[in-house]
Amino acid sequence: MSLRRGPLSVGERVQLTDRRGRKLTVMLEPGGLTQTDHGLLPHEAMIGLPEGSVVVTISADKWRRMRHKQDAGTDTEAPDRAKPWKSSRSIGGWAFTVMRPRLEDYILSMPRGAQIMYPKDVARVILLGDIRPGMRVLESGAGSGAMSLGLLDAIGTEGKLTSIERREEFARVAMGNATVFFGQRPAQWDLRTGDFDTVAADLPKDGFDRIVLDMLDPWNRLEQAYRVMAPGGVLTAYVTTTTQLSRLAEALRADGRWTEPEIMESLERSWKADGLAVRPEHEMIGHTGFLLTSRAMAPGQQALRKHVRATKDYQTDVDQGRSSAKSSGLGHEREMVDLEDLEDLELRRVSDRKLRKVLRDLDHQVRTLQGGQDQED
């Protein structure tokens, strides 16, 4: 993975940004032409320029004259054999700044098959998962390659990334995006297709420092994940719904070989600063997914758990007692008992003393209110 510097060259992806902040990402090709809403941009005008240059669109008529001069070597007017251009494309004179795209820009503009992980989540996975150069990382769910690009960039050429993707066509998309971004196929990336458990069964025990799971049912993959994870390794899972989050967290606790899960989500909001007009933008990137991290315990060691007071029951289903009463045929008396037992499920139990004080205060306020109304009457 060579860091590209110097003039822009054929085969590179560049990002065009106009004065309104609109972005367009293209790959420079010999004889290439990019159509915009404000005219045409010949790639020859960008090849060889340094980053940060400004290029200006031309009209379709000017492009046809330029091509005819190159083909015929004369200044005579060319017959109109070109493809009919849309009228909106025939405008010229619109300026764009040309730069090499950042990783975030590339992820948001690259071709995709599956839904990508947003850059804000990719960055948090790398930080929360403590993924650094030289590490051995296992990834499940390559998708279109957004997370894979971040992981490859984080581990560097000294590290090793092994990715497992169920669908072969998605694996091809991910590898293609990585090859275009880095300029060559990453040598430190082992991309495999198949089911996670099946592929992971052939991986070496304790062979990975970090694991990243982006899949529908990560709680079903904990057995193989623990087998291939080195003691103390960090597991990071990306899930999108609260039901997935709850199920994964409880599975980690019940397993006993993983530390207490840490859960977070990130929200992204841009700001506008124009003189004294400093305010947040009207749109933001809100919830995209939850990030859960946990660490692998040493073999034979039980993870420590936070003590929960007996008055707080987070596990019993509210409808469980009601259902069991009806199925056992105990009738109305048993059901009333179950309704009384629901008090034990309260997450914020109010003491009798505090409840009596609240009632006294409310009774006093009601009497005061009624007294004031009687005086008005």
UniProtKB/TrEMBL annotation:
Biased composition annotated in UniProt, kind: Polar residues: 317-327
Any one GO cellular component localisation term in the record: tRNA (m1A) methyltransferase complex
Catalytic activity from the UniProt record: adenosine(58) in tRNA + S-adenosyl-L-methionine = N(1)-methyladenosine(58) in tRNA + S-adenosyl-L-homocysteine + H(+)
Annotated coiled-coil segments of the chain: none
One function term, GO molecular function aspect: tRNA (adenine(58)-N1)-methyltransferase activity
Region entry Disordered, spans: 66-87, 312-333
Classification via InterPro entries: SAM-dependent_MTases_sf (IPR029063), TRM61_C (IPR049470), tRNA_MeTrfase_Gcd14 (IPR014816)
Protein residues bound to S-adenosyl-L-methionine: E165, D190, D214
Keywords: Methyltransferase, S-adenosyl-L-methionine, Transferase, tRNA processing
One Pfam family from the record: GCD14
Residues covered by the tRNA (adenine(58)-N(1))-methyltransferase catalytic subunit TRM61 C-terminal domain: 98-273
Lineage: superkingdom: Bacteria
Keyword set includes Transferase: yes
GO biological process: tRNA methylation
EC number: 2.1.1.220
Role noted for this protein: Catalyzes the S-adenosyl-L-methionine-dependent formation of N(1)-methyladenine at position 58 (m1A58) in tRNA.
UniProt record similarity statement: Belongs to the class I-like SAM-binding methyltransferase superfamily. TRM61 family.
Name under which the protein is recorded: tRNA (adenine(58)-N(1))-methyltransferase TrmI
Source organism of the structure: Bifidobacterium mellis
